[in-house]
């Protein structure tokens, strides 16, 4: 093993987030100007055949914030994300990103506009190398690739060590890091993450959330879908609770975490 | 660093191959068994690599290769038969309707283009299908093409079910070698470009690929058209090699043979496909030939050896490969200097380890 490997590895975990000096200035920072909504979803409906998965939900994602949608299986969280990136065709409603209507655009256009999705279950390209995976993330652009690659590698030193390894040989946590890094490579304005903690050991989940906060601190807007309500609400500025296709509760992250209804339903604590 | 070395190694190998081909052309008889194997190897290498581009790199399970070869072969033949010979070739159709003739290289390119065009058209409906359904649809397409080209009404163009002949062909090994090498080099360049990377991404995970902003329909169609282009060129080369062409010969067994080669070589490995092609034709045309002729040793007639037995043995060999070596010869790796060095160092280490025990 090379010396470099020894330096960067931190025991059996995925590896600490590297110190980031490179700036990400196209995003701006929190508090730069008056807070505005980056994404505005209004009355969004998604149908699969006769089944209505999303029943007219509305929510906002303010710039530079972490917003989370929590809820049980089948609540329509993933469908919401999928329809924002046009992987699903909504049955009605509007999705405005920076004031621009996204419904009707193809996925390609949506990604170009600056939204990117970290899909559920990581979905890295298993037979491609880590480097190739990252290049795929930047599929729609060609400028300053090397700079962004260096930047992502500083963020995830473990990925740099493994850059020529097939992504399928990485551990689950490393694959999740790769999926996030790949999404960053498209230089998005907003990242949507679908269950980033799915199937990961608790200690790795902690690290994933650390990274989510780190990316958010750099100015990235994040829309997070989670079943792990506890972690998600702790990290989020704003939370929405989804049940069978509708938003039933909303509020600041911390506020929701203390809400007795949420506590009972998602945090495993009985109401007294 | 090792990439540069690999490139040099590949170029040296290629140069050596060119020299070897040149020497073989001077020394061997044109129609000898070795020449047959090598020429067929060159032609089918190209077709196998084109099929691998689709099946191994893009993950589209298509079985239309014989159909596209047929289209390519016929396009080439129809366009290049010298005007003076058309009356004798199209004797039942008053000399046919095409009354001009193009140089062979234009014919070769047109063969590819017409195949690609038809692939584009057929791709519009068919590429919406996935896996087995796509295979069935493309297989059906190839069969339809075979019947279509024999249709009497099209006689003035395709000569009906009669063969086409008298078009320019080649006698040297150098010609198919150079054409195949150029085409395969183009495919390799494509695979290593960001466009080709998108193919591989689609193969690995369609949803993630789409989420990255890859236009699935467009990329699948491009892969299908490019694969068909080179299958068409391969078909034209085959027509040249045979000196006559008849739609009847482009049966589904041809596609299966090519699929077999691709699987034996390893899905997702260009060098694997090339290697497997030569092995396949060497085995079926040459090394197993002796099984077809009765043999008597000291008055004792060896049982089973008779015409057709070769095919039986060959099938058993292939079944063994499919059962016990599913990754094929190369898996999804490429033959390269660094790969070779790794392989041998691993072997040596393994030996040392067992010696130490």
Polypeptide structure, described:
The complex is a heterodimer of chains A (272) and B (357). Chain A is α/β, with parallel strands linked by helices. Chain A has eleven helices and ten strands. A six-stranded mixed beta sheet of chain A has the order 6-7-8-3-9-10, with helices on both faces. The radius of gyration of chain A is 18 Å and the shape is globular. Chain A starts with a helix and ends in a 6-residue tail after the last helix. Chain B has 15 helices and four strands. In chain B, helix 3 packs antiparallel against helix 5 and helix 3 crosses helix 11. Chain B is globular, with a radius of gyration of 22 Å. Classes of the chains: A alpha/beta (272), B mainly alpha (357). At the A-B interface, helix 3 and helix 4 of A face helix 9 and helix 10 of B.
Provide a concise account of the structure shown:
The complex is a heterodimer of chains A (272) and B (357). Chain A is α/β, with parallel strands linked by helices and 272 residues long.
């Amino acid at each position: 093993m090379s010396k470099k490997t020894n330096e960067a590895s931190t025991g059996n975990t995925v590896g600490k987030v590297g110190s980031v000096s490179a700036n990400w200035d196209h995003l701006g920072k929190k508090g730069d100007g008056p807070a505005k909504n980056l994404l505005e979803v209004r009355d969004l409906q998604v149908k699969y055949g006769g089944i209505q998965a999303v029943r007219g939900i509305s929510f906002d994602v303010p710039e530079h914030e972490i917003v989370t949608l929590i809820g049980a299986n089948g609540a329509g969280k993933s469908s919401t994300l999928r329809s924002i990136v046009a992987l699903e065709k909504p049955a009605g409603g509007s999705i405005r990103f920076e004031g621009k209507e996204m419904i009707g655009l193809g996925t390609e256009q949506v990604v170009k506009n600056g939204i990117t999705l970290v899909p559920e279950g990581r979905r890295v390209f298993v037979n491609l190398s880590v480097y190739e995976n990252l290049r795929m993330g930047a599929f729609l652009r060609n400028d300053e690739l090397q700079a962004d690659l260096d930047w992502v590698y500083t963020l995830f030193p473990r990925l740099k060590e493994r850059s020529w390894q097939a992504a399928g040989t990485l551990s689950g946590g490393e694959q999740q890091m790769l999926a996030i890094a790949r999404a960053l490579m498209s230089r998005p304005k907003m990242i949507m993450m679908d269950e980033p903690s799915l199937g990961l050991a608790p200690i790795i989940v902690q690290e994933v959330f650390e990274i989510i906060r780190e990316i958010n601190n750099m100015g990235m807007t994040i829309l997070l879908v989670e079943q792990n309500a506890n972690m998600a609400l702790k990290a989020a500025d704003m939370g929405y609770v989804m049940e069978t296709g509708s938003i039933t509760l909303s509020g600041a992250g911390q506020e929701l975490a203390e809400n007795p209804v949420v506590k009972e339903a998602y945090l495993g604590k009985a109401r007294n | 660093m090792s990439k540069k070395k690999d490139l040099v190694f590949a170029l040296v190998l290629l140069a050596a191959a060119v020299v070897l081909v040149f020497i073989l052309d001077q020394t061997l008889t044109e129609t000898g068994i070795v020449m047959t194997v090598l020429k067929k190897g060159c032609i089918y290498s190209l077709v196998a690599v084109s099929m691998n581009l689709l099946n191994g790199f893009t993950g589209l399970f298509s079985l239309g290769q014989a159909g596209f070869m047929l289209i390519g072969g016929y396009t080439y033949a129809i366009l290049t038969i010298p005007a003076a010979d058309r009356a004798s070739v199209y004797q039942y159709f008053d000399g046919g309707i095409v009354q001009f003739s193009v140089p062979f290289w234009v014919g070769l390119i047109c063969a590819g283009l017409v195949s690609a065009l038809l692939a584009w058209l057929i791709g519009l409906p068919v590429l919406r299908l996935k896996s087995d359904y796509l295979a069935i649809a493309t297989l059906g397409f190839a069969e339809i093409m075979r019947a279509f080209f024999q249709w009497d009404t099209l006689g003035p163009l395709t000569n009906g079910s009669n063969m086409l002949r008298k078009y320019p062909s080649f006698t040297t090994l150098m010609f198919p070698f150079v054409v195949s090498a150029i085409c395969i080099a183009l495919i390799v360049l494509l695979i290593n470009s960001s466009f080709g990377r998108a193919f591989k991404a689609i193969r690995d995970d369609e949803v993630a690929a789409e989420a990255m902003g890859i236009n699935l329909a467009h990329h699948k169609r491009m892969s299908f058209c490019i694969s068909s282009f080179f299958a068409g060129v391969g078909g034209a080369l085959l027509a040249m090699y045979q000196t006559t062409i008849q739609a009847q010969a482009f049966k589904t067994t041809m596609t299966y043979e090519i699929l077999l080669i691709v699987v034996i070589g390893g899905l997702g490995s260009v060098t694997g496909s090339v290697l497997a092609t030569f092995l396949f034709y060497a085995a079926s045309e040459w090394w197993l030939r002796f099984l077809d002729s009765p043999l008597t040793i000291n008055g004792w007639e060896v049982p089973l050896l008779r015409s057709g037995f070769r095919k039986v043995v060959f099938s058993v060999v292939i079944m063994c490969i499919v059962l016990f070596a599913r990754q094929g010869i190369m898996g999804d790796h490429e033959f390269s200097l660094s790969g070779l060095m790794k392989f041998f160092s691993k072997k040596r280490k393994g030996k040392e380890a067992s010696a130490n025990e």
